[in-house]
Amino acid sequence: MNESTTESEHSSVESDSDNIADISSSLIKNGEEASEEEATFISKQLQAKNRKKKKSGGFQSMGLSFPIYKAILHKGFKVPTPIQRKTIPLIMDRNDVVAMARTGSGKTAAFLIPMLEKLKTHSAMVGARAVVLSPSRELALQTQKVCKEFAKNTDLRTCILVGGD
Length: 165
Known about the structure:
- Keywords: ATP-binding, Helicase, Hydrolase, Nucleotide-binding, RNA-binding.
- The protein has about 160 residues and is mostly helical.
- The chain contains seven helices and no strands.
- Helix 2 crosses helix 3, helix 5 runs parallel beside helix 6 and helix 6 crosses helix 7.
């Protein structure tokens, strides 16, 4: 190899399907907003790639839409926690799930990600389409904050209602 080759000549480009996650993460890191057409293309490519690599167990293997996947990456999540890896695919397949895990294990994301994904893929309706019940005001506020972060790239809206003194 010639020593005078530039750095760009050294970097090889892999197939498009292998670089979709890299492209989407680089869009997020550079602060660029993907056009709707680009987002649709990347989303379709991600979903196609994810169907081929179901064994990897990452968020990219769950067939999530680009806006939800982008929010997950933006939040800094790289790999799903065990509770997320076990429950998200089940919930996405419309199964009822009762799960227990330790505090800080990612339970909130485990139920919010598939809920938002299902709400996003269905036609828009007027009124509430999902309700999350929490045993305390603090937990309700925390859940709504996480929900807003995951839904920020979508047209979904969140609202919190609390009672008590």
